[in-house]
Prior knowledge:
- It is built from 4 helices and 2 strands, in the order αββααα.
- It is mainly alpha-helical.
- It has one domain.
- It has a two-stranded antiparallel ribbon with strand order 1-2.
- Helix 2 (38-53) runs antiparallel to helix 4 (62-91).
- The longest helix has 30 residues, at 62-91.
- The protein starts with a helix and ends with a helix.
Amino acid sequence: MSQREQLEVPLQESREKWYKSHLLGREIELKELYHIPGDELDLLMAETAELRSDRDNRDRNLGKYCTAGYFLELAKIIDKRRENESMANVKI
C-alpha cells in the first residue's frame, strides 16, 4: 500500500478486519473498501444488508453479524462520499 493510500485510511480502520463475501467470491479487508470499484461496493452493501436484516443471524453468528454491520456502515459512508465528490466535479 502506498503512503498516500495509508493516509486515506483512518488509523482505526487499518487494523485487520475481514469479511468473507460470497457475492464477490473472496475475503475483503475493511480498509479495502476505500479502493474497491463501485459495482463491488454495491454488491457488498447488498450482501451485508441482507445478513443484517435477519435477526436470527445475530443468534447464529454474532461475530459475522457485527462485522457485516461495520462493513455495511462504512460502505454506505464511502458510497455517499464518492457520490458527493462526483457531484462536486460535475459542478466545476
